[in-house]
Amino acid sequence: MHKDQVEGAAKDISGSVKEGIGKATGNDRLAAEGAGERVAGKVQKAVGSVKDAAREALKK
Hints:
The chain has 2 helices and no strands. By secondary structure, it is mainly α.
């Protein structure tokens, strides 16, 4: 597992929490910030997966 995958998962989770809290409290700014973090986390996880796949392909 690549470090980008781990960091991306952490961003995704924290973004989900922020977004949920923002929606529950009616804080649109916090909800939007959380949604942005979720997207950034998903992108970072995908980058990590690509790096992992490339590393595995080079080993073969």
